């Protein structure tokens, strides 16, 4: 399994398999957050699939904010190499000590702006 799979994430995937939070909208619980610079992935659910895990969540900070599926192996391979500048390599990181929280309670302006587009 890839470097981003932690015991806590593995446990969350057992409790929140794909499609377990369908239709919950802002009430859906974010299980963990991955970040890469200004890009953030808010993970809602997922399932192990062979040597990988397929996650479902919201990504913000790219050209388009959107719901989508994410391969944990592919996410772990994202890297920018700044070693020539003496800064090392920038990799996707999981937010440590994150407490699962309903999306509506997360203090992230861009996420809340995205979610507001789906309100009636």
UniProtKB/TrEMBL annotation:
Domain of life: Bacteria
Designated name of the protein: DUF2958 domain-containing protein
Species of origin: Barnesiella viscericola DSM 18177
């Amino acid at each position: 399994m890839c470097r981003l799979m932690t015991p806590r994430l593995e446990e969350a995937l057992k409790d929140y398999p794909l499609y377990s939070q369908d239709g919950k909208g802002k009430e859906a619980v974010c299980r963990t957050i991955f970040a890469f610079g200004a890009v953030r992935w808010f993970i809602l659910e997922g399932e192990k699939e062979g040597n990988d895990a397929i996650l479902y969540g919201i990504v913000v900070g790219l050209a388009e904010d959107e719901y989508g599926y994410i391969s944990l192996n592919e996410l772990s391979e994202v890297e920018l190499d700044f070693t020539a500048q003496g800064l090392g390599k920038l990799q996707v990181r999981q937010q440590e000590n994150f407490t699962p929280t309903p999306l509506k309670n997360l203090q992230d302006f861009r996420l809340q702006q995205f979610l507001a587009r789906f309100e009636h």
